[in-house]
Amino acid sequence: MISVRNLSKSFGDLVVLKDINVDIKKGEVVAIIGPSGSGKSTFLRCINRLEEPSNGSIMINGKNILDPKADINKIRQKISMVFQHFNLFANKDVLTNLTLAPIKAGILNKKEAEKRADALLKRVGLFDKKYVFPHKLSGGQKQRIAIARSLAMNPDVILFDEPTSALDPEMIGEVLGIMKQVAKDGMTMLVVTHEMGFARNVANRILFMDSGVISVDDSPKNVFENPKNERLKEFLNRVLNH
């Protein structure tokens, strides 16, 4: 489904990603872990071209999204992203936040978009917040709305960039619960996360990034129970025993 070849990204002299090669299958939940500054978020942002890679190719469903002729807006309709800081439209109520993109993109008409939004709000347990503005919501509620909004586009894949790192501890569980449901429904997900419990229990695969490369690509069982890579051992030791 997603095939990344020789992907590199530099900001001036700073090389952030070095020659990354990885394939993601449809329906896989891939957790991306690693120390700060290892290139995790940049890698994710390259996949929907929020960052322009310096070189390499990214094929999604057989199309090279880095081709100058590729219609990036069309591609992005199928690759939703959930950000660390929610990125909801502050001047629009929850319903409009969910319906704006599908209507604008011509995917659904207003009535269909509202019907889909209602179903998604019920699914994330926030139907009663339909006409509320984002500033009245808690961080956990905002992130659940952001996940519902990403699902409103009926995407092929959802990219999550540290979706719980801006949340208070008691709100993390409610967001991870929704993400687990989405994973269960067979959505292809790439999740940059510090939540090791989620990585261990929900992901099918874990990528460990360090210094701009994928050092380990393995099953959660091997990563957590039998890590061979020294840097991975150090990292896990630090995050699990802090």
Q: Strand order, biggest sheet?
A: 6-7-8-3-9-10
| Structure class | alpha/beta
Shape, please? globular
- Unreliable segments (pLDDT under 50, ≥5 consecutive)? none
Instruction: Give the helix tally.
Output: 9
Secondary-structure element pattern, one letter each: EEEHEEHEHHHEHEHEEHH
Percentage of residues in helical conformation: 25-40%
Strand content: 15-25%
Q: What's the story with the biggest beta sheet?
A: 6 strands, mixed
Terminal residue distance: 37 Å
Q: Radius of gyration over alpha carbons?
A: 18 Å
Mean pLDDT: 93
Count the beta strands: 10
Please provide a written account of the structure.
With 242 residues, this protein is α/β, with parallel strands linked by helices. 38% of the residues lie in helices and 25% in strands. It contains nine helices and ten strands. It has helices at residues 40-47, 72-78, 94-104, 110-123, 139-152, 169-184, 196-201, 220-225, 230-240, and strands spanning 2-11, 14-24, 29-33, 55-60, 63-64, 79-82, 157-161, 188-192, 205-210, 213-218. The protein has a six-stranded mixed β-sheet with strand order 6-7-8-3-9-10, sandwiched between helices. The chain has a four-stranded antiparallel β-sheet with strand order 2-1-4-5, with helices on one face. The longest helix has 16 residues, at 169-184. The chain is globular.
